[in-house]
Structures are given as structure tokens and as C-alpha cells.
Amino acid sequence: MNCKLGKFKYIYLTGHAFFYQACIIAVVLTTTGMNNVLMIAVGGLFLGMCGSVFPAIIQPFTKQITGTDDVALAHTGNFGYMIAGYIGKWFGNKNKSTEDINFPKGLAFLRDSTVSIALTMMVVYLTVALFTGSTYIETKLSAGTNFIVFSLQQAGTFAAGVYIILAGVRMILAEIIPAFKGISERLVPNSKPGLDCPIVFPYAPNAVLIGFFSSFLGGIVSLIIMALTGTTIVIPGVVPHFFCGATSAVYGNATGGIRGAVLGSFVQGVVISFMPLFLMPLVSNLGFTGSTFSDTDYGIIGLLLGQSSRMGGQIAVIAVIAVVGITMFLLTAVSAKNKGKDEEAA
Length: 346
What we know:
Elements: E1 10-12, H1 15-30, H2 36-57, H3 59-66, E2 72-73, H4 78-91, H5 113-132, H6 134-141, H7 147-187, E3 192-195, H8 205-229, H9 238-284, H10 296-345
Parallel strand pairs: 1-3, 2-3
Helix pairs in contact: 1-2, 1-10, 2-10, 3-9, 4-9, 5-7, 8-9, 9-10
Membrane topology: Multi-pass membrane protein
Family: Belongs to the UlaA family.
Keywords: Cell membrane, Membrane, Phosphotransferase system, Sugar transport, Transmembrane, Transmembrane helix, Transport
């Protein structure tokens, strides 16, 4: 999906993320009672808009990180990364980057992201294993493998997975983007490929770990607040807090250095903890009790369509989507007009 309009020429190439966004849209539209044909038409149109808008809202920050305007970020946490970017801009200090942190010579090996991720996840998995207990892990999860050994294996597997992802990122940047350009110039001239969040990890490896810890801490703080206030408790998930937290820290670092990375990822961790509370009633109506979607873009999509549905059913949902489309058109028209004025002035 993409938009050929000038201001939103982004092509969402992160297929699995786009599939999950289609899922949350389908879940919400099902509650409106739409027939299948209308649901596919309306949902597909809105999904295409999301695929163009979400990369656009953080493109100024993405350009600042990568140093180029040739690639965009297309992930399910873009709204959260935008928040992190602005928090870094408002409250951080860009001159003190996470990458300027000097490790003692004896800890120089930690600059290797694979090693540092493996050690970090080792601590996380061992902590969880000790609280869970050997009986449950060895009977339900590890097929008899000692629970400590199993935890270490999972930490290594997680680090290996991230290494493979980063290797794939390097391949994408080196080979797939040039190939994409040749195709896109025929279909959507001057468009930008939207890729998964690990594309920004190599630009700030230290921020990746800082972001994971800060985001997870935000999730823990949120869990405590939920327990004290008596709401449904959302347990922090390692995967969303790692990927979304790490990416938020990279964006926060680009605009606000170390402080921006810490604050931006922490706030993002709080947001992805509380957003599901508002989504749960929507999915619970379809029998998914206790289940929800984590990342910020799911929350924006679900709450926008869900609240519209509650207020006015199908008509309200279609009206909201129409407003989004009209807004995109107007922004594009204004952008084209300003560009024309700039060219005349030049």
C-alpha cells in the first residue's frame, strides 16, 4: 500500500507489521456490523492511509538519524517514536550522545551489540526464571532441561535473532533499496521505502540497550500504578519493550542525547503499557478476553476507529476515514503550493 500524493510518498515494506495493523482494523470494523465487502473496502483504504501517514510523521527524525531522506521507518510503534523524538527535542541535550559514553577498557567488549544484548537478556531471563521456579519451567517449557540452562539458551537465542536481523538490515540497505528504487520510480516516482525498526539500531548501538532498560522500567512503573489503582494489569512484554524501547531511544538520542534517549523510551514504555487498557474492551467483545495489541500505532488505529464506532457506528467510522483522507489531500496541496513558491523564488 502507498500514497502517490506528494507529501505521503511512502511504501510500507514491513509486511508482518502491516498484517497486524490490518488485523486490528478488521477486529474493530467487525464490531460495527459491516458486511465483508464494505469491511474490506473501508479497511483496505484506511490501512493504505496508515501506511503512508505513519512513516511521514517521523520522517524528519529518521532523516536526522540516517543522514539521508532516501529511506523511512515503517513499524507499529511510529507514533511512540515521534513522542520520543519530541521529548528529546524539548527536554534533552543533543550534544551529549549515548554514543559518546566511554566504557572502561576492561568493558570494551560491551560495545559489541551482540555481546551486550546476550548479557542483558541473560540477566532478564535468569531473573524471570528464578521468580517462576524450576518446576514450572522444566515441566511446561524446557522439556526437562535445567531451568538455568534453559534461560541461558533463550538469552543466546534472542541475541542470535537480533544479530540475524541486523545482518538483514545491512543487506537491505546495501542491496534491496537500490532494487526498490528501480521499481518504485515506475509506480510511485520519488517514493521512499518504509523498513522495519532495526534499520536505525546501527546508528546508536548504546541507545538500543538504554532504550530497552528505560522502556521496560516504564512498563514496571505502569504495572505498579495499575496494581495500586485496581485496573487490569498489563504485564510488560520483553519483545515490545526491546524493539520499541530501543527504537524510541535512538530517536530520543538523535534529538536530545542521553537524556532524550532515557526519557523518550521511558515515556514510550508507559504509553504502550496503558494504551492496551483502552483497547481491551474492543477486543473482549469478540471473545479475546485478556488479549490486546501492544505498540502505539495499534492503539491509535484501534481507539480512533473504536471510539468512532461507539459514537455513530458504521457511518461515523466511514466519516472519520473520509476526514483523514481529506486532511491528507489538503496537506499535500499545501505542500505542493509551498514547493512551487520556493522554486519560483529560487
